[in-house]
Amino acid sequence: MIHNAWTCISGNSSDFRKAADDLDKISKASVNIYLSKINISREDLERMMDEETWITSEEALSMGFATQILKDNTTKACASAKKSVLEAIKNNRNYQTDKQKHSKTEYANNLYTFIKTILEL
Question: Considering only CA atoms, which of 78, 50, 49, 51 is closest in space to residue 65?
Fold first, then answer.
């Protein structure tokens, strides 16, 4: 889906005006980033974003939003990676040394290292 920036907000009218201004800035920046890669006009892109347009992988490739379409066998690899990550989270959460449980920071660092390793495979 191609769309403008979204947010959730609570607060007073000033908060809402600021949030709207921030969203406009973010959407404009997104347009400029997209335009550096895609092969459709600014007008078409902005219309697609305003209309919250769903596109297929083939459309994304032809317009330059994607550089390739992955084959079906990647679904199995992703599912396998997801299962490995979830198992690591479960195992790491239950892991403790004789002296103390791992701190949340250490847990997060270990999880980051594991996920980085999976993504490099």
Answer: 49
Return the SS3 of 2. Answer: strand
3 near 45, Cβ under 8 Å?
no
Rounded-to-integer distance, Cα 45 and Cα 27, Å: 11
Rounded-to-integer distance, Cα 78 and Cα 20, Å: 36
pLDDT digits over 30-89, tens only? 999 999 999 999 999 999 999 999 999 999 999 999 998 887 655 565 666 667 767 766
Closest by CA to 20, choosing from 32, 36, 7, is 7
